[in-house]
Amino acid sequence: MVTESREERLVGAFVRLADTLVAGYDVVDLLQTLIESSAQLLDASAAGLMLADDKGELALVAATSERSRLVEMMQLSSGNGPCLEAFVCGEVVVVSDIAAEAARWPEFAEEALAQGFRSIHCVPMRLRGSIIGTVNLFRAATGSLTAVDAAAAQGLADVATIGILQERAIRESEVAREQLQNALESRVVIEQAKGVIAQLRAVDMDLAFTLLRAHARNTGRNLRDVAADVVDRSLAL
What angle do CA 192, 194, 195 make, to 5 degrees? Predict the structure, then answer.
């Protein structure tokens, strides 16, 4: 049995992201692939991704776990936190010891520590002058990513950003805003479907999402469409 090296798995992650850059690709699935790859390869316990809507307001679009989702939602609710700062300033924000920064972002620190996170690395999704969101890597230990991992995190975020803003799919800014808005609206339906599955199957939200996504991939359907069917009870998973 041949075991892939970390470098080979990282290259594979870039290839998978590049493979999604085709007409009609599923934006939500692209972003979920991005954060799952980032968390698995870059020494992170969990990850989350925020996107800006057509008014420039951030919303959570993808998360690898319920723990990271709760921390991200808390930041959006309170209006402060390192992820929001990375979006506003357009620069990487590193918090190597969340407890030590509790005075700076008290609500964020309290929730992050409660969920078992001790450090975070926030990467802006940017292309030239456009900043459309952030990729946020949560870690269970204090400290910072290595320089190599930090560069890889930025590279993965850049590929996803290009995928969203690619010229052949979005030639005008109005279309770009519409596509981003669609991704945000899709996530609302997906969260509703997760809740339905979790209740009916008596499972946690993470497993509910896994079941939802697996069905979409196995049937070749769009994730949002499957979620809508679950919500209106025309599909039981």
Answer: 65
Radius of gyration of the chain (CA): 17
| Residue whose C-alpha is closest to residue 159's, from 6, 48, 10 | 10
The span from the CA of 77 to the CA of 178, in Å, is 24
Residue 167 in this model has a pLDDT that exceeds 60:
no
Please give the class, per CATH, of domain 185-231.
Answer: mainly alpha
Across 79-107, average pLDDT: 94
| Superfamily for domain range 6-169 | GAF domain (3.30.450.40)
Of 123, 112, 120, nearest to 89 by C-alpha is: 123
pTM above 0.85, yes or no: no
Contact in structure between 63 and 117 (CB atoms under 8 Å): no
Section 23-36 average pLDDT: 77
pLDDT tens track for 6-20: 777 777 777 777 666
Side chain identity at residue 91, one-letter code: E
